[in-house]
Amino acid sequence: MTPIYRPKMKALTKNRLRAVSISASILMLSSSVVIADSSSTADSSNTVKQSHALSLLSQSEQQRLQHRLSQVESEIERLLPQLSLEEKVSLVHAGGKFHIPAIERLNIHEMWMSDGPHGVRYEIDRNSWAPAGWTNDYSTYLPPLTAVAASWDPNMASLHGNVLGAEARHRNKDLILGPGVNLARLPLYGRNFEYMGEDPYLAATLVVPTVKAIQANDVGATVKHYALNTQELNRTGVNAKPDERTLREVYLPAFEAAVKEANVHAIMGAYNEFRGTNANQSHHLIKTILKGEWAYEGVLLTDWNVDINTYDAAMNGLDIEMGTAVESYDAYFLADPLLAMIKAGKVPESELDDKVRRILRVQLSIGMMDKQRLSGERNTQAHRDDARTIATNGVVLLKNNKQVLPLDADKVKNILVLGPNADKRHGFGGGSSEVKALYEISPLDGLKAKFEQNGRKVNIQYMRPASSAFMPIPNDYLTTRHWTGTPSWQINYYTDNQLKQLSSESWIADPQFDAKGQQQNVEILANIKPMETGKHTLKLMAQGKVTLLINDKAIVDDNAKPANIINAEVELKAGETYAFKLIYQGKDKVTLGWETPNSLYNSEDEYLAAAKNADAVIYFGGLSHADDRESIDRPDMKLPGQQDEIIEKLLTANQNTVVFMIGGSAVEMPWAEKANAIAWGWYGGMEAGNAYTDILFGDVNPSGKMPITLPKKLQDTAPIALNDYNEKESLYSEGVFIGYRWFEQQKIAPEFPFGHGLSYSEFSYDDINFSSSKLSGDDTLTVTASITNTSKTDGAEVVQLYLNDVKASVPRPLKELKGFDKIWLKAGETGQVSFTLYQRDLSFWDINTNDWLAESGEFKVMLGSSVEDIRLQKSFNYQQ
């Protein structure tokens, strides 16, 4: 079997990227040699795995590192016999919220973990989810992995991993719980923003340099969530049941690459079930594939509070249990219950020994017993520069008619800034990905800073436009937080009119509820802190029985028939906290809004007049972590908060309005055809505002490409079209036709296709050539082409290689991504891109032989700027 990933890593471009530090680059001790065949076993000698890097070290450093790695296996065998049965059991389950215990007499230290797919999470208390209260646990807030995926650049993945690894090590962490590589199958999925897009090849390619860079810092990476965690709806109970071909071709390649190409130290199991049992105790996923076929030598650990049992978890390959809803760590499934099963002869001690060996292997490999272990660094200027670089490289220019962008800083005198994300910060939200950063530059901050720095006087006006619709109380006033860090309202569902029999509870972003024609009894609660003292007019739009209490005092008690607006005036004081409770009983809708002494919002007349008179109008819209967050999927694909209405009116008032979207998942954009300029910035990290400003004014030429398809409407997506999104089971009915593959198969035109992204430059493609027109067996094929920057602006193009098996015995996508290369070219410059195709790239998973199969016949190579923008194509023949 040929490797999934063999990139030709280009040097980081001068004046654009800060080189990854020498110490990090050369200490990639966690990288493995390529495993070229599925039957191969990993070399137990870590020295062999990194001999290619040692030549860059000084002689003393070489000796130290070689000694550490050469001693790993012998140290494991020295330590293991000295451990009592009870001590071995203590290592396979948590001894605190984020660590496993030490065995001090043998110099085995506590092994500490931290959340942090895009920044090391603030310190959690040893034995609870409460913050530890540290004042020195700030970390660099990086753009999430969607931005890395949008860069289509392994260099950005390396920068991201290096910052994460160095900062984790500086915080004395041993494992960082990232990166995540689950695929964006469903636009509603709450954790899409954490991952690397919808394509298995793209994710597999970028996870490798990410893991290598993390582990170069003497920290173990933890690739998650293995496997098929593609929805948050009933994430602990939904049963994922893909066929074997879909599993192998789509949902496992990124994990496979992390194991075979990057020698990742840890993998975290998924919450969901896989074919009837929790993924953390699936014999097929773990014993057969992960630790069998892939010869994985690291540890498999659980996420927190998964649905496992002692016997299946112990026998099927789970190594560390990190979180279970019991009072004592000794009551974990892999604690006293496992000890009892071993003593009773129900679980062989050899299974436990295998787990302990793996844990010790990780600890020894990352230098936990090495006095010269790397110390890391944190909150450095270099790391902030890296955050900005990653953010700018990930911005995608979706549309730029009439060359609206870049804005001319010398001509712009009046800038109107609008939108819910203009002054919003996103670091403290989203779930386990939340980051406590020293600062976060909002888009509005970034724009102001640009002109303050050059001394030019520019009028930057910020407005919050009010829509014509009835608006709920903005979350600016909320002090209540969902556990993910997001301002939210708690909603409780009751089965009875007296609200005594609680059936379920959840969280919503705004105080509005739609019963959708079904009788509901709900209670919506939050704590509110007014910004002004004075009369507040509470406004309730409802049809049904509605009651509003503030600090348990009834303010409204009404049976609204038909739907109308109920007003109630209350005196509130700025800075005080008030407990709001809204009770609704009915089959229709309810929304709680208010008018404050001075509204946060500008009227339609105000903002449209300002838009007509502005030199530049920038609307920062999209999502926030009230929408994109762990544990909850979005209810639909629409922009929240009446944004569509406001954007439509702005585009009418000023056709050159720039719509700048922020978010981690696709949204419907019914106004897209009308807009002349649209950009997508994901969540940009702590330097977001500066990065976005760099793009808007042309200080950086955009080069990002969409790692996901942007559909016109939710119903166009496979899980919804096939009715395969529910609480109970997901059949993955679309098979291998995930994302863009589905849109092409069904001939559905998306709003913007996978791989799409414009530049301020233009590029031509010429001279596609093959190293051979015929291949056989495990021959490789080199594909080259010439790319020319035909514009007057220096820039970068991501050349994408798609492959088509012209006549296959099984249904295959019309195009499958099998290569990409980001090439930087000066104005007028021509350069060459080169791709190597392996037998594996030609193959599909054959369910008859349970192996990869490349069939004889014609294959078409297509090179393009997106999956829909193919510039060159050529065919070759393959013989088995």
Write structural notes for this entry.
- Helix 17 (443-454) packs across helix 20 (688-696).
- The protein folds into 4 domains: 45-365, Glycoside hydrolase, family 3, N-terminal domain (TIM Barrel); 381-467 and 603-746, Glycoside hydrolase family 3 C-terminal domain (Rossmann fold, 3-Layer(aba) Sandwich); 509-595, Jelly Rolls; 763-879, Immunoglobulin-like (Sandwich), CATH 2.60.40.
- It contains 23 helices and 34 strands.
- The chain has 880 residues and is an alpha/beta fold.
- Residues 1-57 have low confidence and may be disordered.
- The protein is globular and about 75 Å long.
- Strand 13 and strand 14 (502-508) form a beta hairpin.
- Strands 13, 14, 15, 16, 17, 18, 19 and 20 form an 8-stranded antiparallel β-sheet that branches. Strands 1-2-3-4-6-9 form a 6-stranded mixed β-sheet.
- 24% of the residues lie in helices and 24% in strands.
- Pfam families: Fn3-like, Glyco_hydro_3, Glyco_hydro_3_C, PA14.
- Residues 473-615 form the PA14 domain.
- Residues 1-36 form the signal peptide.
- It comes from Shewanella electrodiphila.
- This is Glycoside hydrolase family 3 C-terminal domain-containing protein.
